[in-house]
Amino acid sequence: MTGPILRVRDLTTRFRSRAGTVTVVDGVSFTLDRGEVLGLVGESGSGKSMTGFSLIGLVDEPGRVEPTASVELDGRELVGLAEPEMRALRGRRISMVFQDPMMTLNPVLSIGDQMGLVIAAHHRMSRADMATRAAEALTRVGIPEARARLDAYPHQFSGGMRQRVAIAIAILNHPAVIIADEPTTALDVSIQAQILVELQRLAREDGTAMIWISHDLATVSTVADRVAVMYAGRIVEHGPTTAVLSRPRHPYTRGLLDSLPSRGEPGHDLAQIPGAPPSLAALPPGCAFAPRCGHADAACGVAPPATEVGPRGWRCHHPLEEARR
Amino acid sequence: MAGFVLQRLMQAVVVMLVMSALVFVGVYAIGNPIDVLISPDATQDIRAATIARYGLDLPLWEQYFAFLGRVLSGDFGTSFVYGIPVTQLILTRLPATLELTLTAIFGATLVGVPLGMYAGYRPDRIFSRVVMGLSILGFSVPTFWIGLVLIFVFAVDLGWLPAGGRGETVSLFGVEWSFLTLDGLRHMLLPALNLSLFKFAMMVRLARSGTRETMSSDVVKFARAAGLSEWTVLSRHVLRLIAIPIVTVFGLELASTLAFAVVTETIFSWPGLGKLVIESITALDRPVMVAYLVIVSFVFIAINLSVDLAYAALDPRLSKGRS
Ligand SMILES: Nc1ncnc2c1ncn2[C@@H]1O[C@H](COP(=O)(O)OP(=O)(O)OP(=O)(O)O)[C@@H](O)[C@H]1O
Ligand SMILES: [Mg+2]
Q1: What does the alpha-carbon distance between residue A5 and residue A55 come to, in Å, rounded to a whole number?
Q2: Using DSSP, how many helices (H) and how many strands (E) does chain B show?
Q3: The CATH number of the domain covering residues in B86-283
Q4: What CATH class does A6-82+175-315 carry?
Q5: From the CA of A51, how far away is ligand 2's center (Å)?
Q6: Which residues of chain B have pLDDT under 50?
Q7: Which of B225, B314, B321 sits opposite A108 (nearest CB)?
Q8: Which residues have C-beta atoms less than 6 Å from ligand 1?
Q9: CA B242: distance to chain centroid?
């Protein structure tokens, strides 16, 4: 089959409460090709995780994905899909890995039991076959003596090993898309790199597409083919990773890059984006980044249009010069 | 695991010894058994003979070891009031308490935990609010009052169920049981219900708060993201995660109810241990009191031990090290 594996159009997720409506994901659109890795970056609270949860239909009450949104997985519309059908896709065609492996695995169930539950959710299989399949997945993520480890409990693994187990669970049913929500953030730097390489290899072997969520541009630059930068629930800039990171067009992307330790000059203070991320309940009209932006003027009081040039796109009234770097 | 069990067993034995000594000394401090055993106008010779017969002239520690030896062989002496061996007396009463308590606690747990889990899973549903309302009632209304109301409504007013007694019993392993006959079950229903309400309330609360907390955890999010059905998430993940406090309360309640079902047993004239001990305290029936206290300590220790072992089974972190 050709065409993108995932096509997201105008994904919007709102929390309605008595206190008012908060839009945590606002008109997010992107496509993901088979085997492609899309990095989703942005500060804390920018809606990266919510985007992930919205895609797999797991937004907590009272949050809701607007019915005008469209998420097509392999040509099949997911928005508005009945829960039993959505459930059948979760963990089989599209799965998710979370940030903290200390929290995601059930401490009182053995690894084999937890993996068995995930297999049984999608396939009828004998216990022996399940064990074989689970052990295969563990072996694939680099856990030695996988079969013996099926009887082990999460506390018998180190943090990095636990994240491998979580990844093994995510790839158990060979999904077409994996949403990896900061899967390395909670780990030691050296282990981060291992996990990163491991996931990348798995995705390549299976042709699995991946959405790599991170607030760390450095990590994203090593895994992602393309990046999308989120701010206050919106994608403000997207494009091929090297192009976006070397020649950012949106001042927010520029700010994120400048605050990377590796980019600052030694001995100098790191550049910080002034101000703090806005409260989603009280966004300024127009460009949400304007209050923190050195280039903002009166024009920014109106929502900037989406500019698409070739593979790149941005939403800014005053995009930075292409040749700045 | 074996080391863990052994260690707990040793602890249990030590606690049991300490308890028996306390019971022995404590009971010696209340009342003078001689006054109960011998009529005040008995001759000095009879007094001396009786004292010697019961070994009451020996030093306290010798009496204690004699007592310990007899207890270990299951001999608690003869009841002053009933004139029969205490062991036999207790064996006729213990099954009544046992079946009543177990019915009440298992009932409260098997009904309370699922209802509490539902209330935690769907806190805004009307049904959940009704369940929580019931649990508040179970907590705040005193047991004796509910017992009287139950008798008044179901026995006196409606005449559906008997107001007291054990009803027909069947002999099994040489002791009489009510739960094996229909009539016995009818007699047991009201007192068991009465006894279970507080425990039901507790189980509902525990299950509800545990479920609420667990539902928003990453474990549940991750399980859902892997496509597990809500039923599987609740029955396999959540239930296991909330099991430990539930088992704890189950054990505590089981022990304390076995020992102190007095109020309910009295209201429903249920011939159990609680009733027996109250009677023997008023009558200063020392052998019965001693036996009761020893048996109750034993039951507490045995139940605590089982709860500890259940923890180890429920939480692998307690029984296995890192590998
Ligand atoms: N139940 C809720 N009601 C209202 N707002 C919510 C709710 N849950 C999350 N939000 C808001 O959604 C926004 C996006 O959260 P999200 O978790 O997607 O951020 P993120 O980009 O993943 O941040 P982080 O890097 O910290 O993980 C946050 O501002 C948060 O306050
Ligand atoms: Mg997040």
Answers
A1: 13
A2: 15, 2
A3: 1.10.3720.10
A4: alpha beta
A5: 9
A6: 321-323
A7: B314
A8: A 15, 22, 24, 42, 44-50, 60, 63, 215, 280
A9: 22
